[in-house]
Amino acid sequence: MEFCPKCGTLLRVNKKDGKSLYACRCGYEKDIDEKSRFEHSEKNESGDEVVIIEDSNIV
Fold this sequence. Notes:
This protein is mainly β. It has strands at 12-16, 19-23, 29-31, 37-43, 49-55. 3% of the residues are buried.
């Protein structure tokens, strides 16, 4: 979880030009470091695939 250094709100993950980045409503953007991500997928009882992405850079 990352927070915006400009306004303090929670940054959301967006895609821009094929890259994932953290973005804020105030306009701040930060690249997501691939080393800080952990991705895991599982299937739930209904057979739907659930993707879990964790960021190791916890503030």
